[in-house]
Amino acid sequence: MTGWKSRCRLDQGRWDEAAASAASVVEHPGVAPPTRVTPLIVLGLLRARRGDPDPWGPLDEARGIVYVPTGSAAADFYGADRPGDNLFANSLLALNAETGQRIWHFQVVRHDLWDRDLPSPPSLVRLRQNGRTIDAVVQTTKHGFVFVFDRTNGTPLFPIEYRKYPPSEVPGEITADTQPIPTRPKPFARQQLTEDILTTRTPEAHSWAVEAFRKLRNGVTAARRHGPPADSLGPSGDWVDVVRALSALPVPHRQVVVLHYLVGLEVTAVAAELQVPVGTVKSRLARARELLAPLLAEESHA
After folding, report:
1. Which side of the chain, N or C, has fewer Cβ within a 10 Å radius?
2. Distance of CA 80 to the CA centre of its chain
């Protein structure tokens, strides 16, 4: 593991190099990935501008392979500014522990909009299948599925179906057409929320939950429905125009606008997501309104 760890201790110059190397992958999602995806590029891809630098994983000492689960691309709940599948985010990478060469990879979630980064290191296990003993790597997920692969070459040990999902309603958002769903093992978490299982803790809590639930698109293949909260930005309150004007905002202000007005989080939830005080969120929203007002006026007269 020494070779891998030494590559993780990067000074600022090497982080800049990592960001530059990763940028070509980020900016050209339709281009085939390079055969040699070094730890430097992986970490740069996660840190540069599209995610979190949080990969970790076990080492198969006999094979010299490290298995690295990666985080989701940022922002977690909005992807109109990161088109494509965002390859290597939400992925399990098998890398040569000494050279960093990519041996195989599998992307568990394409163009993540739900913060479905891989939450834990995979497990290295030995399985019996069709009379053969197979060294396998098992990756659990936030959405309750378990993916099982041959450690050596990444071959799925159980069939994986690519299921179609409906598009997002957010202007500019292009969701992935399909997502990989393993047919076995069975998911360990509930895969559908229905009205009959909403809370009955109190009649008031149940009524609130039912009212909120009926405002959402729901179903096995339902896509998240984004929309503006009751308050508005600017004279028209037209959140489609807000989306068009977002690129003019500083990043901190853009984050709170996206989370509050597009994702629909309350101010307290935005503060928790960004790990900043509630007052900071309120001040950024106020400043965003000031910055967006002339832009929205231009849009309304265009």
Report:
1. C
2. 13
Shared domain for 113 and 80, answered yes or no, is yes
Query: 154 with 93, same domain?
Result: yes
The answer to whether residues 43 and 8 touch, using CB atoms and an 8 Å cutoff, is yes
Report how far residue 89's alpha carbon sits from residue 146's, in angstroms, rounded to the nearest whole number. 17
Strands (E), the chain: 59-60, 65-69, 91-96, 102-107, 123-129, 132-140, 146-150, 160-164, 178-182
Q: What is the pLDDT of residues 62-83, one digit of tens each?
A: 999 999 999 888 777 778 878 8
What is the sign, positive or negative, of the torsion defined by CA atoms of 277, 281, 283, 287?
positive
Decide if 268 is inside a domain.
Answer: yes
200 plus 82 within the same structural domain:
no
- Asked if 60 and 106 sit in the same domain, the reply is yes
Name the pairing type of β-strands 160-164 and 178-182. antiparallel
Write down the mean pLDDT value for the chain.
Answer: 75
Rounded (10°) angle between helices 278-301 and 267-274: 110
Residue 234 lies in a domain: no
Provide the residue range defining the domain that includes 212: 192-225
* pLDDT tens for each residue of 135-179: 999 999 999 999 999 999 999 999 999 998 888 877 778 889 899
Q: Is the dihedral of CA 56, 58, 59, 63 positive or negative?
A: negative
In a shared domain, residues 16 and 84? yes
pTM: 0.60
